[in-house]
Amino acid sequence: xxxxxxxxxxxxxxxxxxxxxxxxxxxxxxxxxxxxxxxxxxxxxxxxxxxxxxxxxxxxxxxxxxxxxxxxxxxxxxxxxxxxxxxxxxxxxxxxxxxxxxxxxxxxxxxxxxxxxxxxxxxxxxxxxxxxxxxxxxxxxxxxxxxxxxxxxxxxxxxxxxxxxxxxxxxxxxxxxxxxxxxxxxxxxxxxxxxxxxxxxxxxxxxxxxxxxxxxxxxxxxxxxxxxxxxxxxxxxxxxxxxxxxxxxxxxxxxxxxxxxxxxxxxxxxxxxxxxx
Length: 277
Prior knowledge:
By secondary structure, this protein is an alpha+beta fold.
């Protein structure tokens, strides 16, 4: 019961009898040297900053002060400023062994900010540096459980998983992880060549399949055209002349070709008997 009362007293910021005496002495000094003492008692923090005040080593109740003016007592008060803006940090490239035993180098970027200046000051010595080291460790732990193919195709899910884990770990420090992004995944050169060869072989196989399908469709179309032409012999002759016309249009050359006798007889010329000569 007594321990509980002592903990409750410490949380309330009770400085004891000696502390109150020192406070009274400090107020007397401020009054004696007024208004010169205002230079030491009035402080200013920017809009993006908060100040955590310590009185005789204890955090003052009421949370961090700012932005704007705040008052401290000389000799017994101390304060520490905390930047509340969002900061970015590049996680150094990490050599990671994936689940399928492939070594890759992965780097990332994280966006963090402090949402509670008191927790960031009291609970951890350096909130930003601790978060950076934790981000590098978390990156290795998360990617070590993934396959190489997932690293290349499922970056958003990996980044979301990292954000959740970092946010839970840094919450007691007063740090909020706003975003995590996987910047680059660098594969070994030999593996890049093997993947390129595999992709090229796959493309060539697909190209051959497409060409074979085209030849099959073309042969079917030619067969249908031949069947139609077989029904009309004149259509074959017209197609023959059309082919010759297209050849003559492309090249300036003299073409000698036999003229079928059946074609002449069809246009009105009498058919001669070669036995008469």
